[in-house]
């Protein structure tokens, strides 16, 4: 039992490391301009998940830890906190850090200007998401209750839709009740016929 528990814990730890590595690769792609938050969310990344420590976030976005603390104090990029108070950054935070660094270092824009630009970009992104939702056919979203009991909209996964289309009810050709009873009567079995629906995946 103890050995099985250790094996399970090792597997979970390995899976956690793999997931964290995937998020690091996604963050690097965002910083390099090869990906954006919308694309990351579309393929299944939780862009709000607090994954990165201060050191990891600083390294990914090429921002000094002291600058991270300054951004936090000013409300420019405010990370989530663990129960112990440690800062944890999400993919959205990494994207904002990379943009702030570019605007500051390459464009020479001050922090007040950077804050306003990032606010406008976030508003623009939210408007794009709303337009995209309006363009989708009816029934492409479902609603669920969040942890606080509120109702939230959840987009259906394209992969889940593909899976559901593959799932079908296969009503296999069955003998008629009379032919089954006649056949079983010859074999000395008087049980009646029952209909069956078989589910299959193509």
UniProtKB/TrEMBL annotation:
<keyword id="KW-0238">DNA-binding</keyword>
<dbReference type="InterPro" id="IPR009061">
    <property type="entry name" value="DNA-bd_dom_put_sf"/>
</dbReference>
<dbReference type="InterPro" id="IPR000551">
    <property type="entry name" value="MerR-type_HTH_dom"/>
</dbReference>
<dbReference type="GO" id="GO:0003677">
    <property type="term" value="F:DNA binding"/>
</dbReference>
<feature type="domain" description="HTH merR-type">
    <location>
        <begin position="51"/>
        <end position="120"/>
    </location>
</feature>
<dbReference type="GO" id="GO:0003700">
    <property type="term" value="F:DNA-binding transcription factor activity"/>
</dbReference>
<dbReference type="InterPro" id="IPR047057">
    <property type="entry name" value="MerR_fam"/>
</dbReference>
<feature type="region of interest" description="Disordered">
    <location>
        <begin position="168"/>
        <end position="188"/>
    </location>
</feature>
<protein>
    <submittedName>
        <fullName>MerR family transcriptional regulator</fullName>
    </submittedName>
</protein>
<dbReference type="Pfam" id="PF13411">
    <property type="entry name" value="MerR_1"/>
</dbReference>
């Amino acid at each position: 039992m103890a050995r099985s528990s250790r094996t399970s814990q090792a597997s979970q730890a390995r899976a956690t490391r793999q997931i964290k590595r995937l998020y690091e690769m996604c963050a690097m792609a965002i910083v390099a301009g090869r990906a954006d938050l919308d694309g990351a969310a579309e393929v299944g990344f939780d862009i709000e998940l607090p994954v990165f420590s201060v050191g990891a976030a600083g390294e990914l976005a090429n921002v000094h830890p002291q600058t991270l603390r300054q951004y936090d104090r000013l409300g420019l990029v405010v990370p989530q906190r663990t129960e112990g108070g440690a800062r944890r950054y999400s993919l959205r935070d990494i994207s904002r850090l990379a943009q702030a660094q570019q605007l500051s270092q390459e464009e020479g824009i001050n922090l007040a200007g950077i804050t306003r630009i990032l606010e406008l970009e976030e508003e623009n992104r939210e408007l794009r998401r709303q337009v995209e939702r309006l363009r989708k056919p009816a029934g492409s979203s479902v609603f669920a209750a969040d942890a606080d009991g509120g109702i939230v909209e959840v987009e259906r996964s394209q992969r889940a839709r593909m899976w559901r289309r593959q799932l079908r009810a296969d009503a296999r050709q069955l003998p008629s009740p009379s032919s089954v009873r006649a056949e079983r009567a010859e074999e000395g079995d008087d049980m009646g016929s029952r209909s069956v629906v078989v589910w299959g995946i193509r």
